[in-house]
Amino acid sequence: MFSSGGELTPRQVAIQLLSRREYSRAELARKLQQKSFQPDDIAVCLDALEEQDLQSDERFAESFIRSRILRGQGVIRINGELRQRGVDQETSTTAFAKVEEREAVDWFELARDTLVRRFSSPGDTPKERAKRERFLASRGFDFEQIRYALSCL
């Protein structure tokens, strides 16, 4: 299991990380760089893991999207976070389509549910209403979803 000298190989470190949760390729590369592995060794390791289907940006994106939906986050925010984690737009788009279909995601209802968990009324003053709009916008919901959610309170 260990290489000479008791040091872990890039593959061993990556497998340990992947045993806990899915990671994007870019996240794994960053983690391995922090452990001072050589860039060439990291690339070879990640290519092999991907080839063996032990690491998959598609699988990571789907898992990430599902977890963020459970937290009450919208498409805009989730997309931004996927980009920060090195997932390309094509992979994100495909993952969103799969999750939306499989989980029957209704972004309008998710916005409503998220708002209801935090606030009991749409707000009596423009200031209170704006606070609710900002809350949903910060969660990644678009204007139409926000308007719908507020109309339901």
From TrEMBL:
Keywords: Cytoplasm. GO terms for cellular component: cytoplasm. Gene3D superfamilies: Winged helix-like DNA-binding domain superfamily/Winged helix DNA-binding domain (1.10.10.10). Pfam families: RecX_HTH1, RecX_HTH2, RecX_HTH3. InterPro entries: RecX_HTH_1st, RecX_HTH_2nd, RecX_HTH_3rd, Regulatory_RecX, WH-like_DNA-bd_sf. The keyword Cytoplasm applies. Residues 56-92 form the RecX second three-helical domain. The keyword Cytoplasm applies. It is found in: Cytoplasm. Residues 11-47 form the RecX first three-helical domain. One of its GO terms (biological process) is regulation of DNA repair. Residues 106-150 form the RecX third three-helical domain. HAMAP family: RecX. Belongs to the RecX family. Modulates RecA activity. This is Regulatory protein RecX. The lineage of its organism: Bacteria, Pseudomonadati, Pseudomonadota, Gammaproteobacteria, Oceanospirillales.
